[in-house]
Amino acid sequence: MTTRIPLMAGNWKMNLNHLEAIAHTQKLAFALEDKDFAAVEVAVLPPFTDLRSVQTLVDGDKLKIKFGAQDISAHDLGAYTGEVSGAMLAKLGCAYAVVGHSERRQYHGEDDELCNTKVKAALRHGLTPILCIGEGLDTRRAGDHVPYTLAQLDGALHDVGAEQAAGLVIAYEPVWAIGTGEVATPEDAQEVCSAIRGRLAEVYGRETADQVRIQYGGSVKASNVAAIMAQPDVDGALVGGASLDADEFVRIVRFRD
Ligand code: PEP
């Protein structure tokens, strides 16, 4: 049986300037000094403007805390004002790039086709995409959440090969649970995460599917993380609001302690 190391990742969204990022990261590094990073992986996903500051700190911490970007350009270079390429993120030492967060889909019109080009851009530059998928409230109420989420998965992974798929991180983030305080039940999370793994097995084979890490995201807190992490197909959490409180994020990371 494959052992998947849980990934607990903090999505800071558009919060914390570079000075606040330094203080926050220092606090995390200090509080997690004794953590067994081989058993739980910890990553922060700051705004672009904080990446250099975070890199400087975690470099000194021998990269135990990993970091990544909240978005990535579909392009590698050129006249794309405001965009940041995978090459630039890789050069800074990013391990991850979030692709298709629901806030990018909602406010910037990102669709599955664009997510597909961004997933491929990340992979081209040795970054692990954290691909976010998940249904809105109407879809959930209609009972269509599984086919909806799997269609997003299929679209974003079109033409991504099995050798690359094994290293992916998929974040199941029901939109109705993001930033609302309304967390999915552990059973809800398991239902969709297991369907995601099932689809990956159909496309890439069971062995590959068993290596993919599938996170749950949506109002994760220290008080609900353990029950969600106890589900067999949940391999980590993508944490938004609660990751801005260093003490709370540390409690989430220490869900097993
Ligand atoms: C997120 O931003 O990916 C997220 C899950 O946010 P929150 O934890 O605040 O719901």
Automatic annotation (TrEMBL):
Organism: Streptomyces aidingensis
Record-annotated active site: H101 (electrophile), E173 (proton acceptor)
Subcellular location: Cytoplasm
Assembly: Homodimer.
Primary gene name: tpiA
GO CC list: cytosol
Key words of the record: Cytoplasm, Gluconeogenesis, Glycolysis, Isomerase
Pfam families in the record: TIM
Residues that hold substrate according to the record: N11, W12, K13, G179, S219, G240, G241
HAMAP family: TIM_B
EC code: 5.3.1.1
Top-rank taxon: Bacteria
Protein name per UniProt: Triosephosphate isomerase
Biological role stated in the UniProt entry: Involved in the gluconeogenesis. Catalyzes stereospecifically the conversion of dihydroxyacetone phosphate (DHAP) to D-glyceraldehyde-3-phosphate (G3P).
Catalytic activity as recorded in UniProt: D-glyceraldehyde 3-phosphate = dihydroxyacetone phosphate
